[in-house]
Amino acid sequence: MVARFFVFFLFAISFSALAFAEDNPTYQAGTVHVTSEKEGTPGDGSVFVTVIDLEKEIGTSKSTAEVLDKSVGLKVKNYGGLGAYSVAMIRGASPNQVSIYLDGVPLSQARSGVFNLGDLPLLSLEKIEVYRGFTPPQFSSSAIGGVINLVTKKDSADKTFSSSVTQGSFNTTIADVMATGPAGPLNFIFHAETGRSDGDFSFKNDNGTPFNKTDDSWDLRENNDFKYHDLLGRVSGQFGGAKISVFENFYFKDNGVPGVGANQSEKASYEITRNVFDVNVDIGDAETDRVIASLGAYHLLTE
What we know:
By secondary structure, the chain is mainly beta. Helix content is about 10%, strand content about 45%. Strands 8-9-10-13-14-17-18 form a seven-stranded antiparallel β-sheet, with no helix packed on it. A five-stranded mixed β-sheet has the order 1-6-7-4-5, with no helix packed on it. Strands 2-3 form a two-stranded antiparallel sheet.
């Protein structure tokens, strides 16, 4: 009896499924292709890389150091306000284990290996590439912590002109002008930026006694002013199967050194002058835009 009931039960299920299938016919849809653009990762695809698009950051960030401090795995130690001495640490590595490049040209000093992020104007940059824990082969020297490559704005086939002036607290002013476009067989870009600030913000001075609150007072930061000038130019052109690009960047900054809060310095200061000259020749097929060989030479002067 049990066996017959079981067989009848299976037959009933099969008949119900067949009847359901006839009442609800199935349709086979065509093949659906889902595509998406792959995010660009410069250099070696196996490297853990972050590319920061500065078009989205300008207006929300005041400095290159502030932009970098938002990157995952990277910490910026800032010793003051806008324009102050700042260093980068990647994944806990010390600042002298992180190399800084400008369009592939090393900026870190051979003596200490530490580069001041406060000496990097933001408006002349197009993007920043952060390589964590590895140095790709296109860079001249290796670094344990990683590499930060600053990529400047590129020339354009269309003529453009832009300028801006920004003002803020503590008598801060930043102005820039940029022109780009074709000039006969050449393309060019010119960018000039200048800025200044008094940096005289108020701070709580503990008078060198952090555990004694009775002698604390609010003071103004002294000798914390700075001014800088940044000029960038690039000319490029296609000559047969070779694309030649000439790049020049001049930077000057005069910065006060205020010292510690309890004993501020009134006259100490430092000046930096940096000049980067770079020539690149890409040899390839102009129709397929494929580069067969690339040659480059640069000169870096820092005082």
